[in-house]
């Protein structure tokens, strides 16, 4: 045997010993496939010869020895042939795999067994360039972008060739027992401008198809204020989405999620916002308030169903807190109560003693009048505290009752046309008298008609007119019994007069007061009280 052939066999044996022990199995299969099943170990024939020997009797020892030597010689020849054939087959395999990948080789999940680098890269290229990516949007909407639409293509970087070079062809049989999987860098390229254009063309990226996010807000429902949950919407930030998509494509990922990329515009206020919760709780305190106003037999209920409308709301029903608006609505509400229930200056039907019939009297300061400023302040305070109460409003002026003409049966009747006065107390006439009222010749001295009430009563009062430049007064008139009811106009005694009634008032009347004889003024003074109605009419 030549040295070259001997060296080849040593290398083959050394290589065979380096692989998995199961190689023996594979070698047996290779030999079997190479020389067939009938060449090695002729067992059936030996069995037949023994049967024949037994049938014919014993053979001579010489014949047996000769037969044995012959069998050994054949066996040796066959074994040598087998070794030569197996070595040749193994060498053929090693040569075959010097430019191909072993059996069981996968690169990036692609089966590359028995393929050259060029074939492998061509297969990778075909699979890569079939690439598509699914863009996931809210509402289970998914849209695809094809690699062919964005110039997506494979660019070899030599990884496949590097893997092949690291593969020892003498170990080709390992592939039958130990498949190898490799991950190679996928060098790809694509057109970013085409990618952005394709992204912008997707239905979910078109502005008119997007729903803007909505903040959580407080609104009134049925009997209370509640928080309406935020709406996430589908408005997408184009730049954020594009960057996420570009990264996914460059990594050859099969999909990308707009949600996971954080591309959606988010509501700025959610249902868990503490300021929103505090607002709801505050408003529900307001809504619990219940103020029942009483106006005689009539009532007005103010509760949450009305208070809810004292806030500003946007077009989506979201409450806009505005203290000025709230106060303005409270003022408007109190103003509406005053318009409905104030009676100061309104017409009243009054039974005239002189005429014996009902007459109509209007004007004056007598009657019910809500103090709107104080009532608004009180009302807002009660609403913010969630107060439940029944009460009258705060008045700046009141009448003796809400019944009929509200005058009752204790009053002073001043008939300016007849210049006569009557004072009724609990329906009984206490005193009546002629008087002299304001001088009709001077417009600023005429005693006005209307219904008024007594401010107070005072003894020994000096009545004074306008103050002159020199410090003196236009007039000074001391009186014993002073009973004012309309600014500076009042009932009082007039000791400087000797006559009362008739037509004196037309040309020689007072500065507007009702001048009475002292005795009559005294009786009136002793029986009248503050707030008694005083009805003046012509």
From TrEMBL:
Keywords of the record: Cell shape, Cell wall biogenesis/degradation, Membrane, Peptidoglycan synthesis, Transferase, Transmembrane, Transmembrane helix
Annotated SUPFAM superfamilies: L,D-transpeptidase catalytic domain-like, L,D-transpeptidase pre-catalytic domain-like
Domain (L,D-TPase catalytic) ranges: 410-537
GO cellular component, one term: extracellular region
Active site (record annotation): 492, 513
Keyword Cell wall biogenesis/degradation: yes
Record region (Disordered): 39-67
Gene Ontology MF terms in the entry: peptidoglycan L,D-transpeptidase activity; transferase activity
Pathway assigned in UniProt: Cell wall biogenesis; peptidoglycan biosynthesis
InterPro entries documented for this protein: LD-transpeptidase, LD_TPept-like_central_sf, LD_TPept_cat_dom, Transpep_catalytic_dom, YoaR-like_PG-bd
UniProt keyword annotation of Phosphoprotein present: no
Domain of life of the organism encoding this protein: Bacteria
TM annotation in the entry: 71-97
GO BP terms in the entry: cell wall organization; peptidoglycan-protein cross-linking; regulation of cell shape
Family matches, as CDD domains: YkuD_like (cd16913)
Record's protein name: Putative peptidoglycan binding domain-containing protein
Native source species: Lactonifactor longoviformis DSM 17459
The organism's taxonomic lineage, starting at the top: Bacteria, Bacillati, Bacillota, Clostridia, Eubacteriales
